[in-house]
Each structure stands twice: as structure tokens, then as C-alpha cells.
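Table S7 (text form). Paired inputs.
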Amino acid sequence: MSEVYVTRRTKLRARCQAGGSATALISRPANVRYLAGTAPRGAVLLLGASEDVLLCPGPLDDRLDGRPDEALRIHTLPGAAGDPAVAAADLAAGLHADSLAVEEHHLTVGRHRAIRSVVPRLRLADLAGAVEQLRVIKDEEEISCLRIGAEIADQALGELLESILVGRTERHLALELERRLVDHGADGPAFATSVGTGPNAGRPGHRPTDRRVEEGDFLSVCLGANYRGYRCEIGRTFVIGTSPADWQIDLYDLVFAAQRAGRESLTPGAAYRDVDRAARQVLQSAGHHEGLPTLTGHGVGLEIDEDPQLAPAAMGKLDACVPVTVEPGVHLPGRGGVRIDDTLVVRPEADGGPELLTITTKELLAL
């Protein structure tokens, strides 16, 4: 894998040099991992003109999942020797750099001031989202990790659906799902698992409560697996213990149609906002305007919420090999709602169109 990280750093170095900076300081953890491989907590990466250095706040831990890229020089700060970002800036100045690009969107004001005080003559430039832009398009190794994570999430959800659910609390079901993720090989959940029942079902970002599952409830579940640092997402909605009521069938069919419209619009070259519009128009045409999610989907990878954002005002177009979620939903206050959420990879039509990673059935099941 060393050549992969070298290639990524070479691309970033070219961007930095085009912007007038020979060196760059990478401090955002996901970006450090993307460019350096596994890195200990708090590590930063100094991208130099001729050498790249990973600065670590302490000795490398054998419990790390893998090792940093072997092409990097590892510099370990002794004891509690201060901030690795400040040490990296000092190192850059010692190498006679005249400018340093930093991730201003990640550095705190205090950290930025500390760097400035140590290297007052070094011109600080903004790296902005250069690394995040490189991360948007995934290579097949990254997609493979997402695919395995999706399989783990599907497996955990499928096992839960085979168990008795009536009488159990949202909180208990969420904890069980997270345990099952780890049992099947995940490093952990990709994010806090959401389970909503009855009036809580379909509510965006719902945190599980002690409400117990009752017959006739909608049950909405949103979970994801973290596998080798890569995070996927799946969301499904079911009915508990009895045949669904007419209003539940109608609402489910509507959200399913919206989700299908969003999925079918995932083609290379499609505008982000057009994907959002495809799903959103289905819901709005049925009279649902208030309380809809702010976006239809988003990118996934080393973080669960990455670029691109599939939202009404989003600028940009999809590329092939970009993994995204499509997750429309409707919540009716006091009654509940439906959310259907898949992780897919954008593929050209010649390759079969969008690749669906999360394959748990989207049929409205009565559990």
C-alpha cells in the first residue's frame, strides 16, 4: 500500500506548489490517515519539499490497526513535549521553508496563534479542503473496505430482525446492534446507532430512548459499520407485530419511490442538487414540504459525512467511484415516519450503473 500513500501525497504536494507553498501541515485526523496510513491519535503530517514526516505525540502503539506508511519518517515527541502541529511548523522553518499551508478549517485559533508565535517569519497559507477534495473519489481498495462494512451492517440488522422486538426499548435495540457489528468484524459503529419506534420513527438524528416497542409501531433503524477506518450507512423502516395500516403503506411507498428516484439519478456527471431534487420532488408532490431532511445524501469514507453533499444548493457534479448515501425520509409529528437509507457507489451505465452496497430488503416487513 505504500505506493498508494506516496501517490496521494504527490498529488497534494503538486496542489500546494501550485498555490505557492512548498510545505504543508496536515492536522485533521481523517486527512492524516488518508495520506499516511494508520496514525496514532494526535499525530500530524508535515509534507515537505523532499521528505514527509509524521510527528507523533508519543511512541507508536502496538495496538494500532497497521503501521504508518514505511516511506514516511517518524518523529516522536519526547514525553509531553507539546503540540505536534507546533513542532511540525518549527521543523518546517528549520528546513528553510518560506511558507507553510495549514488546514485552517481544522486548527483552533489558539493552535494557529501558537504556530505563528513559534515561526513568525514563516508565511502561513490556507490549505482549505484540498485533502478532502482528493478523498472524494475512492480507489477500489477503499471501496472494498466500504463493501465489507456494508456486509457487516446488513448481517447485524438481519439478525436483529429475526429476534423478538415487542417490549424492548429503543436504547436496548441500539446497543444490541452495535454489539452485533463488532461480533461480525467491525472496528465499531460508524456513528451512534439510531432506533426510533412509534412517534419517534423516521425522525432525523433521533437518539434512542427508553420507549418500548409496541405492536403496530413503525420501527426505523439507522446504523453503520466502521471497517478499517471506512464507514458505511444503512437505514430501514419496518412495522411491528401486525399488518401495516393503510397510512403506513402509503407513506412507506412514497418514501420508497423518492429513494428509488434518488438512486437512479446517481450517474457520473449528474449535479449534486439534481440528485437531491429527484428525490425531494417525489415527496413534495405528495404534499410533504415541512420537516424534510436538509439533504438527500452525502459522501462516506473515512468519515461518515463527507463531500459531496446531495443538497438543494450544492454545487458540483458526481464522478465515478464516489460512494454516497441516498436517505430520504418523512416524519409525521405524533405518528411516526419512514426513512430508507442506502450506501451506493457511483458507476457509469456501461459498468451496470450505481453499485448498491447495502442490500437488506426494502420491502415493508411486518416483524
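Next pair, protein 2 of 2.
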Amino acid sequence: MRFGLLFGMQLPRPWGPDAESRLFHEVLDQIELADRLGFDNVWCPEHHFLEEYSHLSASEVFLGAVSQRTRTIRIGHAVMLMPPAFNPTARVAERIATLDILSGGRVEFGTGESTTPTELLGFGIERATKRDQWAEAVDAAARMFVEEPFAGYDGEYVSMPVRNVLPKPVQRPHPPMWMACGNRDAIRLAAHRGLGALNFSFFGPAETRKWVDTYYEGIASEECVPAGFAVNAQIAATIPMMCHRDEATAVDRAVDGIQFFNFGLGYYGGFGSPSPGRTDVWEVFQRERAERGMDRAAFGRLGGPLGNPARGAIGSPEQIRELLRRHEEAGLDQAIFLVQGGGMRHEDVCESLELFATEVMPEFKDRHDKAELRKAERLRPAVDAALARREPARTADPGYRVLPRSKH
């Protein structure tokens, strides 16, 4: 199993004049530390207008900085929003390829649609069509990586003439592609499109087994027609994490921040009605958390094995190791640790990363490479068959010309 970290730039009110700047630089320091410690991936979302929940709206810029502060950690969008009103598709391909060059081929290309009305309606995107917009944009972006020149696109949502989209990524045919998933249907769709599955719902090892089985059944089925020109057969899950030798200290350091993360997601994605620039989401959280099942008691009692999905891997090294062994046995390819929730202290996060890397990570690292080789060998016939079903890259009309301005 690999280990990733998720950073969404949560910033509960009240804000001081330098709060955003301090947060961004603290997270850069945390990622640089994670790179030195041997973590495998860093993942950053793209969100817009979600005050306090996420201030990371230009993740491609932030990850450019990450690429210059790190050496080996892989750099992931979790996720880039694909409906063209968020990001014109050619700009997506250009940014991903540029980041791949700057990072020396370390990019993981996560794709998604957005779920919140705050974001969708802010960019004029209809909820009913966002999945179709995603599908067209993912197909077009994959072609932009491999077609030289790009042979054009005439879809309902993506339309573009023949152009040579530059630069091209270092990784060939393109960086590994992923899809954001939050339910079983999305897991199945990711598998049928040959995309890695990025799960942002919290669940325990028993549920992991169900999701893993559904995913790999989809990869092996005849319905798998890759969205890209390679199959990225990987399933990852988000798990809250705070590691401390004393379980009670770990819980005390993480409980409010992790529960605020969950509350903010529900607030913007479901039950909330924010007033832009005025609503204090942290205050609403403190007032409503108990009635929404997010008080401290929801983390369960201290002592014994971890298993509460809301609490995740928050505890001692021994507790976390035992939990992750169960996820590993269930077939999880990557645990993405949520370590930056509202109000969690920079010093506590760094201490947790160091303790985890020293006392928990090594045994999983030792097993991972051999397990990946066995999995690749097992899946090779299914992957080859899936790629044979994918329409190949196209060749543009060699007679196509961009007319001089006087001819338009």
C-alpha cells in the first residue's frame, strides 16, 4: 500500500490579515517534510468560493511550487474540475503537461465535476449535464496529450479546431488519470473508463473490500473502455490521520479539525445556505455539530482497535498499523491521509508525519513493490483487452491550415 496526503487549505474564521499566506507556506513546509520522509503522493483539490472549507482555488499554481520544493513525492490533482466553464480543456492539458515537465514526470491527473451549488452555479454549470461535460473534456484532454497535432473536437460541450497542444507531458502516453468517486456507481464508472478511483468518503476495512471488489471487477469486464490511452488500475481512499504515542493526545489534536472537514463538506454540498463573505461556518459548526452527530463522542471511546470510519487512523502507531493492515488485506492500493483539517496545528501535523513515517510506514513500503508486480501480471490480459477497445489516437487532415487573418 502507498501513502498519500490530502491538503485542502481549510481556514476557519476568524481570519487575521496574514492567515492565508501563513497557511499556504505551512502546508508547503509539511509537503516538503513528507517528501523527505518518503510519503508517496501529495493530493490537492480545486475548490472555488468555499470559504473556510477550502481556500485552494488555483491548485495548479500551488502544485507548481510543490514541484520545486520536492524531489520524489508524486504530485496529484484531487481533482481538477473538468467542465469547460471551470477550465477550458486545452488549458487543462497544457497545465498538466507543464507541471509534469517541472516535476520531472511526477504528476497524477485526477479529474472531477464538482458537487456544490456554490461552485457549479458560480460558473454557470448545470448539475444535470456536469457528468457529460466531464466525459467529453476527459476524452479530449487525453487526446491532446497524444495527438500531434490534436485532431480537433466537435462535441456538445467541448469544441476546438485542429491545433498542436503544447507542451507534451514527460510521462507517456500521459500522466496516470484518476476520477473522483463518492459512491459505488462512481467506482464502477471509474473502472469502466480505466481510471484510478479517488474516494473521498470515509469508510472502514470491511467497506474497503466491497469497493475494491466492485472496482477490479469493472476493470476486468468487457465494459472497460479506457478514457485515456493507458489504464490506471488503482483504488485510493481518504482516511483521517493523526499519529501520537498517546491515543488521547492524537484524538484531542485532530477531532475538531476532522469533524469540521466533514461538516464543511455537508454544509456546502447539502444542508447549508451560505451568505458569501458573511457566514461564519466555524461558528455554525460549533452550534450544530452535536445534532449532526459530529460532537467529540462520535469518535468513540479510547482504547482498543480503530474501526470508526469518521475517526480513521487517529491514534497510536500500534493502532494505526493494525487498521492499515486490514485495509491492505482488503486490497486498498493507497491510503490518502487527511491531515489538514480546520484548526489543526502545523507543529502537530509535522510531529504526526514524522512518527508515522518512522514507526508505521516501513513495513508497508517493503511489501508494496512485490504486490504491485503481482497485480500487474494478473491484470495484464484485461488491461490489454481494454486498450484494444479504445479508439486510437487520430491523425489530423494534413491539408488543414489556419487561415491568415485577411481570409477570415
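The chain has a mean pLDDT of 96.
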